[in-house]
Amino acid sequence: MVFKFKIISDKVENFALHIDADAKNTFFELHEAIQDECKYDPSELATFFLADEEWDKGVEIPMFRDKSPKNNSAVTMKNTELGDILKEKEDKLIYIFDIINQKSLYIELNEIVMEKKLNTPVVTFNRGLAPLQSSSNRYDTDLLASEDFELQNAFTDFGELEDLNMIYGEMGEVL
């Protein structure tokens, strides 16, 4: 059984991503497909939440198991198949790809194709630029330009020739 997902952002209007995934694929495999396609830093933490019709968060499907004694849930992205959680068309997920800044994507199950199978999730459509993950993962061109200028000055401004002559002597003396 193949799930056809539509993924959108509330921050970037023209962004849309469609991914097909098998019901046997894990949430981690879906996470990796989104990360790869959006060029996100894979070292950043991410999480999925089930969502209701109004996009309110429900059950969390985290990357790692919470080891606190209050949480007995063993549900993680790696050990939970999509078909274990998603049951019908229009089921919704919220994918938080930047936990610190609470940046998220909204995922809706648009269609379920019963007679098909896939080994890994496949991107079938991509429009627009994905929302930025976090400023620490993308280069700020103004910052780079100012750092580059300072770096250039550090290597080209060795002082006046007279100062160097006082320290090292006249070049003619060396030859």
Helical fraction equals 25-40%
β-sheet strand percentage: 25-35%
Strand order of the largest sheet: 4-3-5-6-1-2-7
CATH A-level architecture of the largest domain = Roll
The CATH class name of the largest domain reads: Alpha Beta
Number of strands: 7
Structural class: alpha+beta
Note down, in words, how this protein is organized:
The chain has helices spanning 27-38, 82-85, 141-156, 161-168, 171-174; strands at residues 2-8, 16-22, 47-51, 57-62, 92-98, 103-113, 122-127. It is of the alpha+beta class and 175 residues long. It folds into two domains: 2-127, MM3350-like (Structural Genomics Hypothetical 15.5 Kd Protein In mrcA-pckA Intergenic Region, Chain A, Roll); 141-174. The longest helix has 16 residues, at 141-156. The radius of gyration is 25 Å and the shape is elongated. The model is unreliable at 137-149 (pLDDT under 50).
Question: How do the helices and strands line up, and which of them pair or pack?
Answer:
Blueprint: E1 2-8, E2 16-22, H1 27-38, E3 47-51, E4 57-62, H2 82-85, E5 92-98, E6 103-113, E7 122-127, H3 141-156, H4 161-168, H5 171-174
Antiparallel strand pairs: 1-2, 1-6, 2-7, 3-4, 3-5, 5-6
